[in-house]
Amino acid sequence: MSDPSLKVLVVEDSRTVGAFLSTTLRAFGYACEVVTTGAEALDHYGAAKPDLILLDVMLPDMEGFAVAERIRRDDPESWVPIIFLTSLESEDDLSRGIEVGGDDYLTKPVSRVVLKAKIHAMERIVAMRRRLIELTAQLSEANKALARQSEEDALTGLANRRMFDLILAREIEHSRRTKQPLTLVLFDVDYFKRYNDALGHIHGDQCLREVAQVLRRACRRATDLPARYGGEEFALILPNTPRTGARLLVQGVARLLAGARIAHPDSPIGEFVTFSGGMATVIASDTTSSLSLVRAADEALYAAKGAGRNRVISFDGDSAPAPAP
């Protein structure tokens, strides 16, 4: 059965032959347009992108060979079958047609049986190409999904631990090369186990998603990376950011979290969810590593917890006031 969606462009300067081909193709069930010059063929191809071209070799303004060559040259990413219509039968002409991008020949006068057979053959190729394009698109989407899964935390949509490790190593190298400051902040949701014990893990997961959204909203530069470090721990990688700039950003995170007013039914320090944070800023040297920077931020985080939580402490001992509820 013919594919009614197959669009055929006939390029034929003989009105008699053009009318015969048009009538025959439509009787076969194909959509068909007829043009009479090479220039019209190129214009129509660019505008309509037909699925098959029947191309007369001898046209009033240029050879069909030149038309085919232009189509192949100007649109190398696409492919459309080109069947030459010709009364030429020399081997040199056949060879030239293939070299410029033709796929087959029909000798005039055109036989309806041969025409149908050749178009059916090309139709199968077009169908296979469409399927290949469809499968390629599906594969591309699948690869993108796999890439997202390898980079994103499934619960929060932030960068996952693997992505965090990759980006932190890259930014340490960038800081080492440019002599620009790099700040790492580790956050821990205060008394999160009590939150889970009081409300259950479903509410706990929602709490973590809301905290992640707060971190995402606070990061306005494309280079800033919020990540889920693990469990109820989060991280911010802040390239080209000195301690003072990081402090301002962390204060913004605290305000956003306070504004979210996530109720905590069993927190000893307030009625809403809060966080503790540890911050470390370096201009990376040859001895700086991901492990050393994480260890410094982690030590500051534990100092913040020991100081009563609901605060951020820098590795050098600078402590921020507890964020207002």
Automatic annotation (TrEMBL):
Residues 180-317 form the GGDEF domain. Residues 125-152 form a coiled coil. It catalyses: 2 GTP = 3',3'-c-di-GMP + 2 diphosphate. It comes from the Bacteria. Pfam families: GGDEF, Response_reg. Its EC number is 2.7.7.65. Transmembrane segments: none annotated. One of its GO terms (molecular function) is diguanylate cyclase activity. Residues 7-123 form the Response regulatory domain. Gene3D superfamilies: 3.30.70.270, 3.40.50.2300. The modification 4-aspartylphosphate is found at residue 56. Keywords: Coiled coil, Nucleotidyltransferase, Phosphoprotein, Transferase. InterPro entries: CheY-like_superfamily, Diguanylate_Cyclase, GGDEF_dom, Nucleotide_cyclase, Rev_trsase/Diguanyl_cyclase, Sig_transdc_resp-reg_receiver. This is diguanylate cyclase. The lineage of its organism: Bacteria, Pseudomonadati, Pseudomonadota, Betaproteobacteria, Burkholderiales.
